[in-house]
């Protein structure tokens, strides 16, 4: 019941029906996302004429002869894949955070904080370092899907392990969840460190930048590989909404409502693992999106997962694209890893949530 109580404003009673506000917010978030995507398409260290490309792409108002090859490559082959991948990853991380918080019935659950991202990183790093040796047969079999699938398996293992440790007799201990998440993340980090120690110079350069989070390596091939897994996870998430709403009342109440609780848990865990694993495989560690976005939206539109999940997808995509714009313009022409930007914003927000729940801050 702790999680259900956290939905209340200021620790009081949950407000009345806010479905109208939620629907309006989703519409506004969709418009905001499209606006940010267009802005991101024009922002960057290069002065490529994105507007000319967009006019040609959307309205055919510009002939191909008027477009320089450089502008076309920068906008359509570098920025556009980056924007699409960033939107997918932002949506995946935010929705995963909302699902985990509903599953554990606590707003402090987040893929990065409870070890899920660390497990995905372990699977991805193992593939990068061992893909040409021990995992060569697997890489030959799975081809471009090797990295996202191995990251998915790593996140799936850690999520099941975390849930098994934190849950006893149908009750999930928040303290145990957070402590177990720290322990699992530390173990995964130790194994990841051992793999990094085995890496060669080229792999080390790739892993160093990748570990801080980046969308710099976005390509259409990566979108095809990881994006398809993320889209499947995002498509599955809305079907969890009714069950997560019932689960917020407790597992016994959810059972009385006819919700298959164990099946809900299994599907939710696989969905989160797929979304986080595929995201980490191509972007590296990007933290705090999964805790910031759902918490902000609960304050605005309430806890109903029918609206919270799609709103989280839209706001998560928007915030990650904005963070990406900051990361590639603040130190232009160099690029700041996007994980640094999200951590700089998300860490203080996490402390605010924690202090607010303990009654230290009344904001």
Number of helices, counting only DSSP H or I runs of 4 residues or more: 16
Q: What gyration radius follows from the Cα positions, in whole Å?
A: 21 Å
Low-confidence stretches: 1-15
CATH superfamily: ABC transporter involved in vitamin B12 uptake, BtuC
Strand content: under 5%
The largest β sheet comes out as:
2 strands, antiparallel
Please give the number of β-strands: 2
**In the CATH hierarchy, what is the class?**
Mainly Alpha
SSE order in H/E notation? HHHHHHHEEHHHHHHHHH
Overall pLDDT metric: 82
Strand order of the largest sheet: 1-2
Q: What proportion of the residues is helical, as a percent range?
A: over 70%
Structural class of the helix and strand makeup?
mainly alpha
Quote the distance from N terminus to C terminus. 22 Å
User: So what's the oligomer here?
Assistant: single chain
Tell me which CATH architecture applies here. Answer: Orthogonal Bundle
How many structural domains can be distinguished in the coordinates?
1
| Broad shape | globular
Say what the CATH topology is.
Answer: ABC transporter involved in vitamin B12 uptake, BtuC
Describe it for me?
By secondary structure, the chain is mainly alpha-helical. It contains 16 helices and two strands. It has a two-stranded antiparallel sheet. Its main location: membrane.
Helix and strand layout, with pairings?
Layout: H1 2-6, H2 19-42, H3 50-59, H4 69-104, H5 116-130, H6 136-142, H7 146-166, E1 167-168, E2 171-172, H8 174-198, H9 201-211, H10 220-236, H11 241-247, H12 251-256, H13 261-283, H14 289-301, H15 305-329, H16 338-357
Antiparallel strand pairs: 1-2
Helix pairs in contact: 2-4, 2-15, 4-10, 4-13, 4-14, 4-15, 5-7, 5-8, 5-13, 7-8, 7-13, 10-13, 11-15, 14-15, 15-16
